[in-house]
Fold this sequence. Notes:
Structural class: alpha+beta
Number of domains: 1
Distance between the termini: 65 Å
Helix content: 10-25%
Amino acid sequence: MGMIINISEALKNRTDYNILREPINDMLKRKQEAFEQKNPIDLLFKRGSLNKFQETYTSSIGFSHAFAETNDYAVAPIFNTHEGFSKVYTTRTFQGGFIITQQVLEDQAYNTIKNTANQFITRWHGDQVEFAMTAISSGFGQTVIFGDQSNGGESHLLLTSADSVDGNIMNPVKNPLFSAGHTIVRRKGMTVLDIINTRQSNAFYVRDGATNGIDLDGVDSGKVAKLADILNQVITIQENYKDDNNKFAGVSGAKRIVAPNDARLKAMLETALDMPMFNDIGQKIGPNPAYKRATLETTPYLRDLPCCFDKNIQRGVGFFIVDPAYNAENQGPEFTQRVAFTLNVEESKNPYGISYDARERFDINVASWRGIAYVYIGSAEPTFVTGPSLQPDGSVVNVIGFDALTPLTPISTIVTPVDVI
C-alpha cells in the first residue's frame, strides 16, 4: 500500500544522519514491498481505501421483476427498486516507533541501526497480519481483543455482515460474518416464516451419522472421500447463494481454500483437490467431486485461531473457502486503509538521538458475507461461535456451538475388506 517517510528539516544537514539516512530508508521501503508481494492478509481479504472518516455502503435490492405480460395497448407497469442492507466502513489509528540513540550514531554502529529498523518494520507488518487474523476470528459472534493495555492498548474486534437477523433493513442487530442465519431483505408483505425459509448459511460443520467432524487421524479409510464431498457441497452452496433480493447472486468465481499450516489437514485437502478418481480402498469408485474445485493456500497465522486449530489435540479443525472475485466486486472482507504507513523522522532530545515515529490508519470491514465460507471439521463443541437466531414467533434467541452452524452430511463410504493370504 506504499510508505511515506517524512524527514525533519533539522536533520537534513546533520552529517551523521546523512550517512545512514538513505540505507535505512531504502531498506524500510524494500521491506514494505516484500510484505506486499506475499501477505497472508491477501488470502482472506481484498484491499481497499477510504478518503474520508467513514463511508456507508448500501446495497440496492433492485427489482423483484422487470416485466409482465400485458395487452398490446396497455400501459406498461412500473416496477420499483428499493434500498437494501447498509454497513458503515471506518478505520482505526495505529502508532509506534523507535529511537536510534546518539551513542549508536557516535559509534557508527550502522549494523545495529539497520537491524533495529529491520526488526521494527517486520514487527509492524507482523502485527498487521495478526490483527487481520484476529479480526476474521471475530466474525463468529464473539468480541475478540487484539493487543493489551500494558503494551500500548487494546482493539476490540467484532465482524458483522450488513444483513440483519430478521431481514429488516432498519434493525441494528446484524448477523455475524459467519452465520447459519443470513437473511434477505424483508419486503412488504413478507412474514417471519418467509424470512426463516430463505435464510442462508456460510458456516458449516460435518455431521456423519451420530459422529461430528472428520477424524483425520482416525482409522476411517474413507476420510478423504468425505472431505472431498464436503468441499464440493460447500462450494456448490456458495454458487447457489441468493442476493438480498432473493435472486441468484452469481458467486461463481474461482475458489480458494485458506487453511492453517497443519501437516495432516494440508495433506488431506491437497489430496481431496488433486485426486481425479477415487480407488476402491475405503471409498466408492468414481470421479472425485472436489477435483480442481479450488486451490489451496495455507498460513501458520491461522494456527493461533481456535476456529482453525485445536491446540489441545494439535490439529487443524477448520478452514475458509473464499471467492476473491466476488468479494472484490461486492464489498466482501476488506483490509481498508485510510492513511498509508507513515514514518516521521525527527531529532530527539530525551534521549538524544533520532526518533522514528510510525503511524497508519486502517481496519477490517465487511458488508457482504457471500464471498467467504467457513467449514469446521472438528469433533469438539465449537464454543468460539455464537449468534442470534430468528424464531417463528419473531423473537430472537442466541445460539452457540454446533447449533450456530449448519450441518453437512458427507457421502457414505465403503470399506473394502482385505484378505491376508
